[in-house]
Amino acid sequence: MGQVVLEMEGISKSFGATRALNGVKLTVRSHEIHALMGENGAGKSTLMKVLSGVYQPDAGIIKVDGQPIVITKPADARAAGISLIYQELSVATNLTVAENVFMGSEPRTPWGMADTAEMNRRTEEVLRTLEAPFSATTPARKLSIAQQQQVEIARALIHKGRILIMDEPTAALSDRETDALFKIVRKLRDEGIAVIYISHRMAEVNALADCVTVLRDGAYVGELAREELDPGKIVQMMVGRPLGDFYQHKTGRQIGKLVLEVSDVAGGKVRPASFQVHAGEVVGLAGLVGAGRTELARLIFGADARTGGRVVLDGTEVKINEPLDAIRLGIGYLPEDRKGQGLFLQLSALVNTSMNVLGKNARAGVINHPALRKLTRQAIDRLSIKVNGPDGIVGGLSGGNQQKVLLARWLEISPRVLLLDEPTRGVDVGAKSEIYMIINELAAQGVAVVVISSELPEVIGICDRVVVMREGVITGECTGDDINQEKIMTLATHDVRSAA
Amino acid sequence: MSTSGAASIGAGRTETTHGSFIGRSFERLGMLPVLIVMYLFFYGLTLYYSDDGTSNFLTTNNNMNILRQVAINLVLAAGMTFVILTAGIDLSVGSMLAVSAVLGMTMSLPDWMPAMSLPVFVAAGLVCGLVNGAMVAYFNMNPFVITLGTMTALRGAAYLLASGTTVLNNNIPSFEWLGNGDFLAVPWLIWVAAAVSVVSWFILRKTILGLHIYAVGGNPQAARLTGIKVSSILLFVYSINGLFAGIAGAMSSSRLYAANGNWGVGYELDAIAAVVLGGTSLSGGVGSIWGTVIGALIIGVMNNGLTILGLSSFWQYVAKGVVIVLAVLLDKWRQQHNLSY
């Protein structure tokens, strides 16, 4: 581990009455991957926005190489060698890779035109060190998310970035892409760059970090060196209490009769798929990102057109041509993209939770608002949603509370079957555990639950049975003691490995 | 009763509701303060420039005048609010008004069926709206492009139907009242505009259909996944917009005892301006009829005030444009200010 390149001390930042950061410190050395951890709202992103010049701190000192510096705008941060790679990528898809890399700082020819040759040459150089499978002149629209990320990294390197901030870089990557990214990050570390790595995922931090700083409620909790890294300890620091068996939620379930029978359902990339779910059972749908799990759930729910197969509910074949059919039969689907496909962000909690029961609470199309208000209050209490009453707008809620609002929407229809697609994505540790409890409670009440998740410990912890998919095909099923990481991963990747 | 519905989906854009009571009221009032300030401003100006120290701006007569002038734009803007709430736009309202006016007026001629004039006005608008709606909803085409097309085509159709001249008729007993009669000392034009506003408010705030309109505008993908038939909703909003354009066609024909292909040119822009001034978001899902009423009144007060002051119509265009941009800027600033608490 090298010498200290960045010190942040006593950083405070308030937004109105909300104290987002309170005397936070962070010390980062060269040749180091420094993980920054904390629940949503702990202040990680705010701290990094202070560092990259997006926000001005109310108090505190930032030192680079021991020299105090003032960062009042993103250009100052860039000049100090600090580069931020955002959660949402900012690649312009209509430009080439090189144009993206040099955006805003294009080298000029003596005539004042952008020097494309020079841009391409220098970009190629950087891409080679990243071992990127595309070239400087590739149009950015042809790149996958992972490759766009490499473009952003290349941009940071071109600007002689010595401190690289990565905010949840693997959120949208498959396992293989994640491995490739890790390789790049390690390589950058070995070349002397200090990497600040923000992540929720314990496994990643374990695999990657040389050092961890934990924040909680905008305050510094502690720093752990490589030798001290222990998931239990980190989680405890993040939430301020021991969590016990965090993922273990399988209590009081009584597996009943067959409720949902999917046979040979196909469409899109999904090859004829069959599986069954019983009342009171939680079935996991595991696999790599892109294995076709979401697509299968959408086919069952009627969101996409099926090309074949049957869906049988309680022993009778049902016709599901569109989501409304599924909803009427008591089948709910929680989409993986909460904001894009689930919530009405500008509307109230009441509207968001009541969307599927408007008809029941209306006469001649006129809504009975008092009745809905009562239902929404009950849902808010039942799921302990932190929202400003039924009229609170959901756009401003944390990820966990937004997810609970969506769950509440489906609970209103008293579902027979619930298809939950990544129910804990982008949700903090505390809310995660609450969502597990809700899932368990639903199963205990006899709902047939299907959980799609890319987080294996989660699948293992809450599911009674795990169906594994790979490239659109169901490759197997695990039950009992077979529900373990090795078995699931083998089914999820097997052929890929043997072919390779 | 009335506040419960408004509160649950109202005040949409801002995330904070925990502010002070005054802050919250201000939020709900929207652009009303702007309207009041502008009204007082014109009152002051007309006083200042008058020869005898009295203003003929603040009189019952002139207030009626303002409302009467606002009525047609408000009817169009109410329909436009539905469309814009779904993140759509309808550029064809002025042309729909012309088609409806020409057809209804022709029907009122002695050789045709004068008694059927009113239904024809309304039906003509509705059919035009259905055409727009069907194309947007079922062919999944961009509403700006579709209605740009129908705006042009229907304008041509209106000229053709009127054979390039003006359809005149001074004897229109079946709907003369609409543009020229009073009810309880208030012109029917104003009653109709008020009724259209109330009906729109009721649909948007009190019915499932209204909520679905907000949902489709806010997030069409999520709307579909909650079982909302998005295309039916789109068909509805363009149809009701056409229906209202038909009503507006009847209003203007009755007022002027005439119709020609040139009726309603540029009306779509006044309607859109009223909706936007009222705080309805062009990206859909946020807004209210209440806001549109205020927006239409702001435009009306400004037109009237500038005319009384004797400003040339060229300057009126400039002033109107500037006020629209400033008002929306103010609204944006207000919302961001609210957000940062």
Features:
heterodimer; A: 500 residues; alpha/beta; Rossmann fold; 2 domains; 6-stranded mixed β-sheet; 17 helices; disordered C terminus; B: mainly alpha; two-stranded antiparallel sheet; 71% helix; globular
Task: Report on this structure.
The complex is a heterodimer of chains A (500) and B (341). Chain A has 500 residues and is an alpha/beta fold. Chain A has two domains: 4-91 and 143-239, 3-Layer(aba) Sandwich (Rossmann fold), CATH 3.40.50; 258-499, 3-Layer(aba) Sandwich (Rossmann fold), CATH 3.40.50.300. Chain A has helices at residues 44-51, 74-79, 97-101, 116-129, 145-158, 175-190, 202-208, 231-239, 293-301, 323-328, 338-342, 349-354, 369-382, 399-411, 429-444, 456-462, 485-499; strands spanning 4-15, 18-29, 32-37, 59-64, 67-69, 82-85, 163-167, 194-198, 211-216, 219-225, 258-267, 270-278, 282-286, 308-313, 316-318, 331-334, 362-363, 366-367, 417-421, 448-452, 465-470, 473-479. In chain A, strands 6-7-8-3-9-10 form a six-stranded mixed sheet, sandwiched between helices. A six-stranded mixed sheet of chain A has the order 16-19-20-13-21-22, sandwiched between helices. In chain A, helix 4 crosses helix 5 (145-158). The radius of gyration of chain A is 25 Å and the shape is globular. Chain A starts with a strand and ends with a helix. Chain B is mostly helical. Chain B has one domain: Orthogonal Bundle (ABC transporter involved in vitamin B12 uptake, BtuC). Chain B contains 15 helices and four strands. In chain B, the strands form two sheets. In chain B, strands 1-4 form a two-stranded antiparallel ribbon. The radius of gyration of chain B is 20 Å and the shape is globular. Mean pLDDT of chain B is 85; it is low at 1-19. The interface between A and B is large, with 45 and 35 residues.
Give the C-level CATH assignment of chain B: Mainly Alpha
- The number of helices of chain A is 17
Strand fraction of chain B: under 5%
Helix-strand makeup class of chain A: alpha/beta
CATH topological fold name of chain B: ABC transporter involved in vitamin B12 uptake, BtuC
Number of domains of chain A: 2
How many angstroms separate the termini of chain B? 30 Å
Which two chains share the most extensive interface? A-B, 45 and 35 residues
CATH superfamily of the largest domain in chain A: P-loop containing nucleotide triphosphate hydrolases
- The name of the CATH architecture of chain B is Orthogonal Bundle
> What is the CA-based Rg of chain A, rounded?
25 Å
Low-confidence parts of chain B:
1-19
Class derived from helix and strand content of chain B? mainly alpha
Low-confidence stretches of chain A are 496-500
* Quaternary class: heterodimer
Domain count of chain B: the total is 1
Second CATH tier, the architecture of the largest domain in chain A: 3-Layer(aba) Sandwich
How far from one another are the termini of chain A? 35 Å
What is the topology, as strand order, of the major beta sheet of chain A? 6-7-8-3-9-10
